[in-house]
Amino acid sequence: MSRVFNFSAGPAVLPEEVLKEAAAEMLDYNGTGMSVMEMSHRSKAYQEIIQTAEKDLRDLMNIPDNYKVLFLQGGASQQFAMIPMNLMKNKVADYIITGQWAKKAFKEAQMYGKARAVASSEDKTFSYIPDCSDLDIDDDADYVYICENNTIYGTKFKTLPNTKGKTLVADVSSCFLSEPVDVSKYGVIYGGVQKNVGPAGVVIVIIREDLITEDTLDGTPTMLKYKIHADNDSLYNTPPAYGIYICGKVFKWLKKMGGLGAMKEHNEKKAAILYDYLDQSKLFKGTVVKEDRSLMNVPFVTGDEELDAKFVKEAKAAGFENLKGHRSVGGMRASIYNAMPIEGVEKLVDFMKKFEAENVK
Amino acid sequence: MSRVFNFSAGPAVLPEEVLKEAAAEMLDYNGTGMSVMEMSHRSKAYQEIIQTAEKDLRDLMNIPDNYKVLFLQGGASQQFAMIPMNLMKNKVADYIITGQWAKKAFKEAQMYGKARAVASSEDKTFSYIPDCSDLDIDDDADYVYICENNTIYGTKFKTLPNTKGKTLVADVSSCFLSEPVDVSKYGVIYGGVQKNVGPAGVVIVIIREDLITEDTLDGTPTMLKYKIHADNDSLYNTPPAYGIYICGKVFKWLKKMGGLGAMKEHNEKKAAILYDYLDQSKLFKGTVVKEDRSLMNVPFVTGDEELDAKFVKEAKAAGFENLKGHRSVGGMRASIYNAMPIEGVEKLVDFMKKFEAENVK
Ligand SMILES: Cc1ncc(COP(=O)(O)O)c(C=O)c1O
Ligand SMILES: Cc1ncc(COP(=O)(O)O)c(C=O)c1O
Ligand SMILES: [Mg+2]
Ligand SMILES: [Mg+2]
Ligand SMILES: [Mg+2]
Ligand SMILES: [Mg+2]
Questions:
Q1: Which residues does UniProt assign to the signal peptide (chains A, B) (predicted)?
Q2: Cys-Cys link to B149, which of A89, A293, B174, B204 (CB 3.0-4.6 A)?
């Protein structure tokens, strides 16, 4: 067995020791005589798994008691509808458009009320985060929405927008648990887990209790009501049980690694190796303005599409997988989530240097 | 490692060889150098997994070409809303109420149009399937809805209802792939996979193409539109990738076992061992009228709640797990899905005989 370096934007690399544990427990979890996949979600063994997962996540993120943690299905995309359906009491919400995912969320919200784009970086292919210090926030806005880390474009909000007192809702799919976060600044933090946290099929929603009400838009399906899931501790119906179990293992791994403060240091160190090289390379260059660079997703280009394709191909042959940029932007993208070891980035940079030497005349 | 006999109603027992393969492939699927959990859903390796899964399911169920197979999230419960949101063009649908799950689906549909209960077996605690040969089907009914196998009550439709030409929609969550089925008799067949097919977090929807249209109810979230998923071959957003992979392995296992005809024989033989014993036991008795008995879920009682509790406790100590009946009916329930070996049922009956000898004065 040989493992590759997997730079996929998601689903993405997971900690090797988590996978090893999962393999070892596959036929018999902890003396129960069954796989976690086979367990009734109402059994004692499973209750302990989901409760421990929640507790460890609360510890890691320091989640205040007045926030609920929900483990749901449908991916981040389903939240694009759940958020307006549950939160648009005044039917007004303000969106900051920093990439495709924010835009999709915005378009979905327009089905349900007056969703307004109050800022955008589309003018420069989403290569920066707009100034959000003094936006024209609607007095009636039920919330202000951001995609905190833009997976495709490689930007990240380093400062949260000034919402002028309105509830902040953030999609953190691609920066989940990558650094400490002050949960109290948000009304809702959510993300699909398939980048930094676990296997696709689980979305985690951290939501302030006062935002969880019976008062949802007409026609909101039962399964799309936060209150149903909150009242039932994510067990209203059968949850994505195995995925939650893997997330729980990743939470334990993060605690062992020193928690989110340590992860941030680790991620900064890792990202610097790549960004520093990009900044002095004569062949490659990053596509994002320096101050808004993501620690997780690093897009770069040579400026020559053929050379980009050659690089991706040769990198793959050398064991660096999934370096092709998103189909909407081209070039390359290295996603270097929590579970990507420093060694992976070091070796990638070595490979890039070699490629540069061979391809710069 | 010792495996128990797991009679859980779902999530439920899976074939041991499927679990062994999954464990062996956990860190390196088929030479890719990564776990299926870590794979981009747009990668070649994953495309092959999902396409092969679909093909094998089509083979097993002999699904006609004019039906789409969708792998979705949200569980069966989310279908309770998706069905009316997508199919209620006239805003009328007729429901046959044979248990809690049918009732929940019915209640959800009432949010979206005129959902009518055209038959029910609630008068006798859902212990039988009502006569559905000549129901008062609405001329405008967009569909007639059944829960084909009632997990909680242990009944199964042995004859499909006469829908008077209207589209039949069936929840087959707890009888999925347990016997051959004539797909062409249905408009939609769907089920959560967590009983007979795979880990919780995947729902499979088999739907006739003409029912997949743009014309959904106002406010239907993008993620709840069949058309979006059909047009994108279940890859509109990140699918529950690992769960689909396990389902694919179960499909291969079913083919190796001889397909659904062989499974039916196997399941009939297995169920007969338990039902025959129940019919001659002086202590235990089944709760369902004989002609409507499920092959999958077998509820039974002693008639004495304390004795029921004693039985469940002693059975658990002897390695027979999850025999407690659903909280809404009490007593016992043995779910004996495809992956439950005959040996499990034989040993359970031996244990019941011993218990009967000890407890009948
Ligand atoms: C930031 C962000 N939001 C939302 C999504 C969509 O997630 P899902 O595929 O789980 O719906 C993605 C997926 O890549 C993402 O990167
Ligand atoms: C027949 C039937 N339908 C629907 C459901 C609900 O499924 P889910 O938990 O996936 O929403 C169940 C669950 O046990 C079931 O047995
Ligand atoms: Mg983006
Ligand atoms: Mg450069
Ligand atoms: Mg039922
Ligand atoms: Mg009897």
A1: none
A2: B174
Cα B357 to Cα A78: distance, rounded to the nearest angstrom: 55
Helix (H) or strand (E) holding A6: strand A5-6
Provide mean pLDDT across the span B94-121: 98
Q: What pLDDT does residue A1 have? A: 56
Q: Can you give the CATH number for the domain in which A283 is found?
A: 3.90.1150.10
Structural domain range at position B64: 17-256
Q: Tens digit of pLDDT for each residue in B146-157?
A: 999 999 999 999
**Are A295 and A234 in a shared domain?**
no
In total, how many domains does chain A have?
2
Digit-coded pLDDT (tens) for A127-163: 999 999 999 999 999 999 999 999 999 999 999 999 9
Terminal-to-terminal C-alpha distance of chain B: 38
Contact B1 A241 (CB under 8 A): no
Chain A residue with minimal CA distance to B75?
Answer: A238
How large is the C-alpha radius of gyration of chain A? 21
Q: What is the band of B49 on the pLDDT scale with cuts at 50, 70, 90?
A: very high
One domain for residues B250 and B263: no
With CB atoms and an 8 Å threshold, state whether B74 touches A76: no
> Which chain A residue lies closest to B83 (C-alpha atoms)?
A221
Asked if the model's pLDDT at residue B328 lies above 80, the reply is no
Domain final residue, candidates B256, B280, B306: B256
Residues B233 and B105 in one domain: yes
Provide the CB-side half-sphere exposure for A274 (13 A, CA): 30
pLDDT at A361 over 90: no
Tell me what pLDDT residue A327 has. Answer: 79
Residue B117 has, within 13 A of its CA and on its CB side, a CA count of 15
Which amino acid is located at A217 in the chain? L
Is residue B8 assigned to a domain? no
Q: Which of B77, B175, B296 to mutate to test the pocket of ligand 2 (most atoms within 8 A of CB)?
A: B77
CATH number at residue B51: 3.40.640.10
Task: Check pLDDT > 60 for residue B142.
Answer: yes
Hey, what are A324's tokens? Answer: 């092709």
pLDDT at residue B1 in the model: 56
Shared-domain flag, residues B236 and B285: no
Same domain, yes or no, for B42 and B125? yes
CA distance A113 to B114: 26
